[in-house]
Amino acid sequence: MLVIRVLLFAVSLSINLATISRAESSECACISDLASPRARWAEIRSWMLLVGAALCIALMAMLGGSAHAAVALEERKLPMKFSWVGCQPNCQGWVSAVGIVTADSPRDFDEFAHGRQLSGATMVLDSSGGSVNDSIELGRRFRELGMLTTVGVSVLTHSARGVRANVSPEAYCESMCVFLLLSGKLRYVPEQAHVRVHQIWMGDRADDARAATYSADDLMIVERDIGRLAKYTFDMGGAGDLLLLSLNVPPWEDLHELSREELRLTNLVTTGMVNQPGSPNAAVVELTPKRVQGRFVSSAVATETNPQPAKSTKSAEAMGRTGGVTARPGRE
């Protein structure tokens, strides 16, 4: 805040000085031709001050953008929070889901959804991942409601006309968030969004996975959760390529960002069209489906939307490495 106040003061001072200098230059020019060098210097100084003011304004805009990015990053490191973003009368509104999936996330969503008509609503995701089993449970809730999914950051702009809601496509959906994205009945990923994947792992050992020790029970948990994740992927209409790409990236390597071709190959994107004129919002558009890809998809389970997950006491994690976040194993 202090930096912004100083910049505002600098801009105000620069503009005032520029105005005074320009007035002085005009006055000097009228008095005598002998004063022309002084007038020219005053003119140059006024333009220099105006350029300085413009640079200050540009710096303020850059700082504002950096602050917004920092806030978004910080929210992605916190437990997932659900909020309703209204935009009537211009659109129907959407659900914003920001943060990591924890053992509390399915219950938190149930409490959020209580009393709301969320059937067919759009879910806007900005998340670095979370618990495998809890993400699967949450994703099945989204599918039961027939929700649409996309990646973005909800932005509220205050103006004289009121508050306007919009969705910024500069957002991240990492690790298990990708499987939440897959839960949408229709799925849209903006060009500017980042969708990144890697292996699932024991959450309490993901920071230094190579140096950690593992028991036979730990390996059993990871293998079991891979099986659950595979079934969920096919239930949601995803392709085996999604599992292949994810399970090829160990936790000690950087996450793999999916290309546009890989998004289509894995069936994470089911629409590429925006049908609502005049709206840049991915979250409020009428989504148009493309032909569903059949590669590696089991037609016998693709229509199953409400199977009950097996119960356990531990879960593997699939955590993004944005800011070095690590969550504890989910408990069911």
Description:
With 332 residues, the chain is an alpha/beta fold. It folds into 2 domains: 2-68; 77-324, 2-enoyl-CoA Hydratase, Chain A, domain 1. It has 8 helices and 12 strands. It has helices at 2-31, 36-76, 105-113, 132-144, 177-181, 216-235, 240-247, 260-265; strands at 81-85, 94-98, 122-126, 129-131, 148-151, 153-159, 162-168, 172-174, 187-188, 194-197, 256-257, 317-319. A 5-stranded mixed sheet has the order 1-2-3-5-9. A 3-stranded mixed sheet has the order 8-10-11. The protein has a two-stranded antiparallel ribbon with strand order 4-12. Helix 1 packs antiparallel against helix 2. The two termini are 43 Å apart. 36% of the residues are buried.
State the total count of DSSP E strands: 12
Give start-end ranges of low-pLDDT stretches. 6-11, 17-32, 53-70, 274-315, 318-332
Question: Sheet with the most strands?
Answer: 5 strands, mixed
Morphology: globular
Amino- and carboxy-terminal Cα gap: 43 Å
Sequence-ordered SSE layout with sheet pairings:
Elements: H1 2-31, H2 36-76, E1 81-85, E2 94-98, H3 105-113, E3 122-126, E4 129-131, H4 132-144, E5 148-151, E6 153-159, E7 162-168, E8 172-174, H5 177-181, E9 187-188, E10 194-197, H6 216-235, H7 240-247, E11 256-257, H8 260-265, E12 317-319
Parallel strand pairs: 2-3, 3-5, 5-9, 8-10
Antiparallel strand pairs: 1-2, 4-12, 6-7, 10-11
List keywords for this structure.
three-stranded mixed beta sheet, 332 residues, 12 strands, 40% helix, 8 helices, 2-enoyl-CoA Hydratase, Chain A, domain 1, 2 domains, five-stranded mixed beta sheet, alpha/beta
